[in-house]
Design goal:
heterodimer; A: three-stranded antiparallel β-sheet; 3 strands; 59% helix; 12% strand; globular; B: mainly alpha
């Protein structure tokens, strides 16, 4: 099973992508999408990505909810900063965070989350030391950001991926 | 434009609100490129358009065509997903090159690399 379907989750998402793009649920498109999904999973084998198993599916929904809430909140916060930039100096700065995540897919997802929430920008991750350097637009308290990212994103990602 | 007049008022109002909100957020993000004074500050501004701007405008588009064609339209979700998946790549590239340049120039505003003084030239960090 594992031999014929090396990346079942990827194949399924490619099938979903194919059906969404074609906006159809006809049997022909389902067959074509399944074939494409399996074929591209075989291409992925040659790229040799790190294999990860999702461990805690229930946490994904909770994490997604948190992220959606934070995207909304940080959008409003960043708009405030930009609109008031004339009268109030922007207090931005760098924050270094010790990240204990090592799984590449989890780190990639963390990068997507941090970029999707305006106000935090991923700058550099050092694999040897595990130090992640981010730039924060509205920096009042560096430790607050460290705690926020560690408890709100890193801990659930660790539960999901490791 | 012509078939937009077919849109009933109950749908047109939320579509307009979503569109105006989305474009306002994107506009503020673009204003940020001028108003924020540092390069790293400017990294944050376009993410407004990439997150809330894209999501709101795509929601408006989904609603419009779902009402006009009387069926569920969800493929705009793909735009949101791909924009969110691909923005980090560009932002990291820009951020890392700025960091690299500032470290080479010995700027004091930028934190040093924690191990060794020389910037890592491999550039393979995620």
């Amino acid at each position: 099973m594992r031999y014929w379907f090396p990346f079942p989750l990827l194949s399924l998402s490619l099938l979903g992508l194919w059906l969404l793009i074609n906006q159809s649920l006809s049997p022909g498109h389902i067959v074509l999408g399944t074939m494409l999904g399996i074929a591209f999973a075989w291409v992925m084998v040659n790229l040799q990505p790190d294999k990860t198993r999702l461990k805690n599916i229930g946490r994904i929904a909770l994490l997604a909810g948190h992220v959606a809430h934070d995207v909304l909140r940080s959008n409003i916060a960043v708009m405030n900063v930009i609109l008031r930039a004339r009268t109030r100096p922007v207090n931005s700065g760098f924050v270094a965070i010790d990240i204990s995540l090592r799984d590449e897919n989890a780190l990639a997802l963390l990068a997507c989350i941090l970029t999707a929430t305006p106000g935090t920008a991923w700058l550099e991750f050092d694999r040897q030391t595990g130090v992640l350097l981010i730039h924060v637009l509205d920096l009042e308290n560096g430790q607050l950001w460290v705690n926020l990212i560690k408890s709100r994103y890193e801990a659930p990602l660790k539960e999901i991926f490791e | 434009m012509s078939h937009l007049t077919d849109l009933p008022a109950w749908a047109a109002i939320p579509v307009c609100i979503l569109l105006l909100l989305g474009s306002a957020v994107t506009l503020v993000g673009s204003m940020g490129l001028i108003r924020l004074k540092t390069f790293y500050g400017r990294l944050h501004a376009p993410t407004l358009g990439a997150s809330a701007g894209t999501i709101l405008i795509c929601l408006a588009s989904m609603l419009t065509f779902a009402v006009l064609q009387n069926r569920w339209i969800v493929h705009e979700v793909l735009i949101i997903v791909f924009v969110i998946l691909t923005t980090p790549v560009t932002l990291m590239l820009l951020g890392q090159s700025a960091l690299y340049r500032d470290r080479i120039e010995g700027s004091d505003d930028v934190p040093r690399k924690s191990t060794g003084e020389q910037p890592d030239t491999s550039g393979m960090d995620i």
